[in-house]
Amino acid sequence: MSAPRSTDPVERVRALVEGARIIADRTSSLGSRARSELVRATGLSLEGVELALAECLETHVSEREIADFCAGVEPVERSLVLLSANVFVAAHRALALGLAGSARVMVRPSRREPVFARLLAEAAPGLFEIVAELAPAPGDAVWAYGSDETLDAVRKSLPAGVRFHAHGSGIGVAVVDALNASRDAARALALDVVPFDQRGCLSPRAVVFVGSDAEAHGFARLVAEELAALSRSVPLGTLDSDEAADATRFRDAVTVAGAVFPAGPGTVGVGGARLVVAPVGRNLHVVPCDDPTRLLGASARSIAALGIATEGGLAARLREALLETRPSALGRMQRPPFDGPVDRRRG
Asked: Which of 72, 83, 98, 280 has the most neighbouring CB atoms within 10 Å?
């Protein structure tokens, strides 16, 4: 039986969170089915799906967090949600934003990964409607996720009077200094890399290291060792042909231009003087640098998440220089607070 559409946004978002909790529970019938369906739909390993459901799906959310979350969303006639396929649990927060704004929510899942939205619809019946196409009208809000090209096309198609919330391509970057380049920091960074096999805007794919070349090499080696260890408990999923080719080209390029450390199925490269964004598949590039704020300034619009393991003064300067970037401690980049859109950049 479908739940009635509540006029209270807090009740709507709470119901969605409770539905997500059912999916996350491996002992529930829906949770058991979700795991097998998501492995097929996402290409992640079973362990990768389990990790995402256990640690990256927002199921432990307080009443205060839900209330604050809803207070930050403007009420609208309808919320229309266009999902992408990169990070399957992202559908949950996207739908929560839609439900915080309206009792009438329509969602068009990604054609490449429609499974998780359908699971949420089954776990929380009546909260939203899955549709084949979205038809925005004045007074609606559109929450859209995807490539910059897709979002540009959506933006141009919208009628006047539609609120457009665009969340496009982005990357994660970590900044680590020599004083914090410990085994624990390497482990925390590896824990940020592994979820979703590095797809999505929160996934770190580059490291700016504040220290000497020798210290950067030492930290890169530690990260590679931690990634290799994690790959034994959470195996890499399936890469498509383009992703696999990009990973091979990255490994070959850093072998020529710098140093390479095998990292289980991926590679950690180190060297050079510019920011290099490694391809998905649990790859990282570490660049030594004296002034990370200067190095990252040119890429600020593409950086959605910033992992920080530095002394206080540098951390403050980084936050000031990258105001639209979501900052966090290493190990928390893929596990942000339930406080609104994950991507804080203005679309």
From this structure: 98
Beta-sheet strand order (sheet of 171-177) = 259-263, 266-270, 284-288, 204-210, 171-177, 303-309, 326-329
Contacts with 248 (C-beta within 8 Å, 6 or more apart), sequence order: none
Separation in Å, CA 154 to CA 76, 82, 159: 19, 10, 10
Considering the domain architecture, whether residues 209 and 111 belong to the same structural domain is answered as no
Q: In a 3-state reduction of DSSP, which class is residue 89?
A: coil
What does pTM read for this prediction? 0.94
Same domain, 204 and 56: no
Please indicate, yes or no, whether residues 139 and 198 belong to a single structural domain of this protein: no
Q: Tokens 């309206």, residue?
A: 102
Name the DSSP class of 179: G
Is the Cβ–Cβ distance between 44 and 196 less than 8 Å? yes
Report the distance separating Cα 238 and Cα 42, nearest Å: 9
Among 167, 186, 213, identify where a domain stops: 167
Rounded (5°) CA angle 94-112-152 = 60
Q: Which two tokens stand for residue 17?
A: 């969170």
Per-residue pLDDT tens, the chain, 347 aa: give them: 344 568 899 999 999 999 999 999 999 999 999 999 999 999 999 999 999 999 999 999 999 999 999 999 999 999 999 999 999 999 999 999 999 999 999 999 999 999 999 999 999 999 999 999 999 999 999 999 999 999 999 999 999 999 999 999 999 999 999 999 999 999 999 999 999 999 999 999 999 999 999 999 999 999 999 999 999 999 999 999 999 999 999 999 999 988 999 999 999 999 999 999 999 999 999 999 999 999 999 899 999 999 999 988 999 999 999 999 999 999 999 999 999 999 999 86
Q: Which domain holds residue 43?
A: 9-167
Contact 320, 297 (CB under 8 A): no
Candidates 21, 95, 91, 34; CA nearest to 61 is: 21
- Residue 320: inside a domain: yes
Same-domain check for residues 184 and 152: no
**CATH number of the domain bearing residue 160:** 3.40.605.10
**Same domain for 211 and 146:** no
